[in-house]
């Protein structure tokens, strides 16, 4: 059988371990000895007990507790191939933790910039992985500027900009298709911040269609926080690009991005897939977090935005109860226990 260029063969998969490197032909690493892996990917799909045909993709079970490991394993492998010794990255926390882990494993020195407001669990991880942590007093956007200024002469290994990081995201689509016996679901619901996961899913399903592994791609439901909704606004206004918004505070720190790097590609992916954009407020996020908890699933607030949006899309009849849905659960609750404890304390006072 002829192999699609830059694509894996379905036949090879039976003999490969359950990590995302089973799709290695699609990941652009020339020499397998450069692979920097912690066994990431091939995360479980489990049923979600709601009125509908819904499964949850437990991507927070990747080694550092977020789906960002999909991108980090590929990007850091490429940097190792290139012989890069030191990198700089800015993040709301999860990408920083993930890149810190893979960089250490590859023997690459990492300088990670995060806002001071980042959840304690993510900051602790970055330090434990041995990266140089720089906390920036200011917004997510101020953090990027600080990293940019410091990156003069150093390798800016940005998860938002690297095409290798994006290539890693495609594996989420490959896995979902393989786990569903080479059928795409009707919908995928995913939080959107910088847009890497959404655009990666779209590219991945595109590859699968081109290779003839699936017959149709899923519709993409992009989820934003109502306090920071640049994708939603641009989509509603039928724009081709995404202008920056003035954002407010939100519990969904991982998607608090005022101007997504992948702006045009995000809008194109939503339109091409006949998808939709939904916003959720913090109250809806906390409700979804509790609903998941009662089913044995502990995620961070950002991740709960996706099931919170699904609830609204089901209620509005936009997603039918008979349609097959995969919800991406992107980050572990253990990273945000400080924020969750704060919330519990506030609730206890309210109801005392
Ligand atoms: C980074 C992140 C997102 C947003 O993903 P993008 O690829 O930036 O759109 C969603 N959830 C969590 C937990 C994240 O860390």
What's the helix and strand layout?
Blueprint: E1 45-47, E2 53-58, H1 69-82, E3 86-90, H2 94-106, E4 109-115, H3 120-128, E5 132-136, H4 140-150, E6 155-156, H5 163-179, E7 187-191, H6 196-210, E8 219-225, H7 230-236, H8 263-272, E9 276-280, H9 282-293, H10 301-315, E10 324-329, H11 337-351
Parallel strand pairs: 2-10, 3-4, 3-6, 4-5, 7-8, 7-10, 8-9
Antiparallel strand pairs: 1-2
Descriptive overview:
By secondary structure, this protein is an alpha/beta fold. It has helices spanning 69-82, 94-106, 120-128, 140-150, 163-179, 196-210, 230-236, 263-272, 282-293, 301-315, 337-351; strands at 45-47, 53-58, 86-90, 109-115, 132-136, 155-156, 187-191, 219-225, 276-280, 324-329. It contains 11 helices and 10 strands. It has a 6-stranded mixed sheet with strand order 1-2-10-7-8-9, with helices on both faces. A 4-stranded parallel sheet has the order 5-4-3-6, with helices on both faces. The model has no long low-confidence stretch (mean pLDDT 95). Pyridoxal-5'-phosphate binds next to helix 2, helix 6 and helix 10.
């Amino acid at each position: 059988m002829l192999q699609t260029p830059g694509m894996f063969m379905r036949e090879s998969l039976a003999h490969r371990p359950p990590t995302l490197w089973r799709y290695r032909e699609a990941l652009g690493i020339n020499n397998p000895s450069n692979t920097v892996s912690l066994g990431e990917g091939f995360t479980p799909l489990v049923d979600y007990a709601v009125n509908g045909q819904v499964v949850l993709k437990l991507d927070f079970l990747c080694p550092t507790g977020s789906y960002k490991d999909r991108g980090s394993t590929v990007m850091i492998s490429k940097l190792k191939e290139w012989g890069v010794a030191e990198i700089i990255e800015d993040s709301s926390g999860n990408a920083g933790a993930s890149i810190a882990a893979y960089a250490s494993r590859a023997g690459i020195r990492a300088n990670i910039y995060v806002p001071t407001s980042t959840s304690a669990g993510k900051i602790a991880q970055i330090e434990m992985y041995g990266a140089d942590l720089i906390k920036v007093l200011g917004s997510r956007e101020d953090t990027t500027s600080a990293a940019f200024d410091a990156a003069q002469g150093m390798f800016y290994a940005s998860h938002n900009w690297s095409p290798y990081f994006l290539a890693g995201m495609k594996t989420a689509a490959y896995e979902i298709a393989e786990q569903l016996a080479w059928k795409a679901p009707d919908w995928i619901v995913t939080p959107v911040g910088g847009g890497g996961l959404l655009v990666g899913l779209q590219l991945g399903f595109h590859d699968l269609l081109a290779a003839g592994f699936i017959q149709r791609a899923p519709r993409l439901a992009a989820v934003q926080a109502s306090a920071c909704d640049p994708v939603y606004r641009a989509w509603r206004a039928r724009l081709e690009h995404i202008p920056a918004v003035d954002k407010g505070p939100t519990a969904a720190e991982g998607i608090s991005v005022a101007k997504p790097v992948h702006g045009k590609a995000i809008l194109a992916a939503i339109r091409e897939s006949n998808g939709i954009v939904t916003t959720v407020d913090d109250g809806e996020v906390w409700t979804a977090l509790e609903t998941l908890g009662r089913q044995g699933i502990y995620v961070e607030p950002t991740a709960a935005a996706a099931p919170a949006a699904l609830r609204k899309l089901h209620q509005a009849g936009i997603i039918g109860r008979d349609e097959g849905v995969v919800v991406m659960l992107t980050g572990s609750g253990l990273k945000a226990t400080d924020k969750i404890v704060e919330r519990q304390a506030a609730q206890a006072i309210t109801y005392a």
